[in-house]
Amino acid sequence: MKKLLKMMLTAALTLSLAACGGGDTPGGGSGEISGSGTHSTPEKRNSLIESKGLFLLEREGGAGLDDLNAQQTYLIHVYDIHPDSAKNVEMSPFESNYTITMNGVNEYEALYAPVTYKIDSIYDSPSKIDYFMLASGYAAPPELDTILAGGEAIRAMSVYKINLNDMKDDTTAAFIVENCDVYDCELNFTRNDIISVSQFDDVFQLEDNPTDYQIAAEYFQRIRVICNNMITGTMFDNLHSNGLESYKNGLSTIELWTSSEFGAFSTTGFESALGRNVDLPQFDREAVKRIYPDLPVDEFEDALESWLTNGKIAIDSLNNGGSAGDEGKLADAALRDMMTYGRKIVEYYTARLKNQ
Known about the structure:
This protein is an alpha+beta fold and about 350 residues long. The chain has helices spanning about 1-10, 130-135, 210-225, 235-240, 245-260, 285-290, 295-320, 325-350; strands at about 50-55, 70-80, 90, 100, 105-110, 145, 155-165, 170-175, 185-190, 195. Strands 7-2-1-10 form a four-stranded mixed β-sheet, with no helix packed on it. A hairpin with a 7-residue loop joins strand 8 (about 170-175) and strand 9. Helix 4 (about 235-240) packs antiparallel against helix 5 (about 245-260). The radius of gyration is 23 Å and the shape is elongated.
């Protein structure tokens, strides 16, 4: 319904702009930040939107990425939205109300967050920035609906596709929020405030425990690849319909993806074992649980271990003329659990875009 409203009401909106903390805005104060291109957590100001970092993705040698041309890159703004102490506020559902203006001239709208991702669709292939938005765990403001008064701060992210020519020594940037009641604001940046990063994962440097956050983000990729990998297609369905050969292929594929050599899954859209970034941390289920204690990590990983172990025993027995036996039943039960918990995990990441 919100997306329908976007199309119906965009032309009719009357825009109004008030600086964060200006005039009678509740929680008023300076919305400015300072920095030198390296992250430091700013002192919390009396403002309802607090910038945590503005990041520029540097593509080495203009390396290909999504549909960007050589003159484009991504600018990523991470910020905290502090609920008002007394007032419930409905956030705007329009990406056009969360803009960034470069050098007072070029205005960019926030990219749409992929809130409908499904692991069992071979036609659903989000871009690398989509993967990052899903995996980051940060909220997408147009999806927030109503922010209730008195709650905890919401860590949010807005991503922009910008012209690289906007980046100069004297560059200025203005992050502007409109039609969000007490959250309407303008945060101003200089070139020194913009932090250059070489991969999306580097954005997590703003967190107190960046490695845990990176592993937790990579977990989305781990689940995506295991549940719907690029080699066997919709693997779960194939395993049930294509018989023993598909089962064998699935086991060997997942064993490859989960081995110690290929255990890391980058939020930059890692899809090939040969392209693994050796700087990425290895999978650690305890790290994921520290960031997302409610995520069914143990349930999925225990089922995966059971499937890999019992499935191989069952296949060896079948290849030698025997039956799958109890190991086959255990492997099938583990597969069913993986299907259940894999979908729940992906849904959990999607729901975080809405702060749910």
